Hints:
β10 and β11 (191-193) form a beta hairpin. The chain is globular, with a radius of gyration of 16 Å. The longest helix has 18 residues, at 5-22. Strands 3-2-1-6-9-10-11 form a 7-stranded mixed sheet. A two-stranded antiparallel sheet has the order 4-5. It has helices at residues 5-22, 26-43, 63-71, 146-151; strands spanning 49-51, 75-81, 89-94, 100-102, 108-110, 125-128, 132-133, 139-140, 159-163, 184-186, 191-193. The N and C termini lie far apart (44 Å). α2 (26-43) packs parallel to α3. It is α/β, with parallel strands linked by helices.
Amino acid sequence: MTMSVIARARSAIRKDIRSNRKALTPDEQHTASRAAASHVLDSLPHAQRVALYLENDGELGTRPLIEALWAKGCETYLPVLHPFAEGHLLFIHYEADTQMTANIYGIPEPKLSVQRLCPADQLDAIITPLVAFDSTGNRLGMGGGFYDRTLAHLPDRVKVIGLAHDCQRLPALPVEAWDVPLPMIVTPSRIYRFGSEPNQ
């Protein structure tokens, strides 16, 4: 099967943006992750259960944010590939001593435990990684559709925030029917809100 024009364009964007973010120095990454963490915390003054990710492939780091959430007494959760529903995510409670295991993509995730599971609709916020985003909140992920499926049926009370380096913003992205745009995206330099609220 040949790739569509949109699929080829999205693949090229992924390659370019991933290369750009991986070119950032460790100091640049550290500074960026601390600045973005401050913006996210300002956006989540009352959140108690927050799902996020552990950075991989040059993604904006979440360690400062995780530690700040712990300091506030918040529970943090990490995504785990669903063992039975292919292409879907579960969220498992994550603490400093949580046992981790590598998933099929080589990405560390908490060991699956029903006792530590939080349904997505019971979270206060989900912080999502992304490869690129545009001026209207469209999000380009790695292509697996895991977050699109997860976000498609969430109640409005769950706040969804994309996290990205400033270099991951493009004027416009080629979109597919299944893409789920984000209401908010945070970068080290600013907060983008897509809707009625002004950007900061």
